[in-house]
Amino acid sequence: MNDSTKSPARRALQGSDFPYRSALLANLSALILLWDSPALQGEILAKSGESIDQQSHATLRHLLAWGPMRPTALAEVLDTGASHVSKIVRRLEGDGLVERTTDPTDGRATLIRLTDEGEEAARGVYALGDRMIAEVLQDWSPADVGRYTALTERFVKDAIDSATRMLERGLLPPQR
Fold first, then answer.
1. I need a surface site. Which of 58, 85, 92, 108 has the fewest CB within 10 A?
2. CA distance 58 to 54
3. What is the pLDDT of residues 127-168, one digit of tens each?
């Protein structure tokens, strides 16, 4: 089946599928949807021989990046509900990858943290990401990778700064 006959849910979107005036925004939207797709990630993980499911991968990745988190904060970064996080955490606890501890700032609250084995598994998740980007860039020259990396770092910094301003004032139309 060629790309044009696949259902919209199975076809990777291109920048041209988005009606933004900005080609950059359209292409970023396509990339985010592609790489943030649980179905795509799950399928890649299964074909890679991974025994840990996509939701557990995301949980390990966030816990390594952010450190111990309350279940509500973990639900927020995973964009899911508390009951779903409880299921994921129980599964990871059963595998010895996470544990619940008391929040030192509030003895009534619980934190979810990686065990030593969980930290090792989380580093493996990041290694998969490194393999993924290496495959994407395999035909790029080192100079192109360096230029793109520098521009991406600048873009992310400016996007964070802009988000901070937008959170203060909203998204206002351009001044004339």
1. 108
2. 6
3. 988 999 999 999 999 999 999 999 999 999 999 999 998 998
Q: Which residues pair with 101 in a beta bridge?
A: 111
* Token duo for residue 105: 């700032």
Q: In whole angstroms, what is the distance from residue 52 CA to residue 59 CA?
A: 11
- Please give the helix or strand (H or E) that residue 64 lies within, else none: helix 54-66
Could you tell me the pTM of the whole model?
0.78
Give, as one character, the DSSP assignment of residue 4. Answer: G
Any idea what the Cα angle at residue 97 is, between residues 105 and 73, rounded to 5°?
40
The tokens for 171 are 């998204």
Separation of first and last alpha carbons in the chain = 50
Tokens of 52: 């840990």
**Quick check: 69 and 112 in contact, CB under 8 A?**
yes
DSSP 173: P
3-state SS of 101-135 is EEECCEEEEEEEEECHHHHHHHHHHHHHHHHHHHH
Strand partners, 113: 99
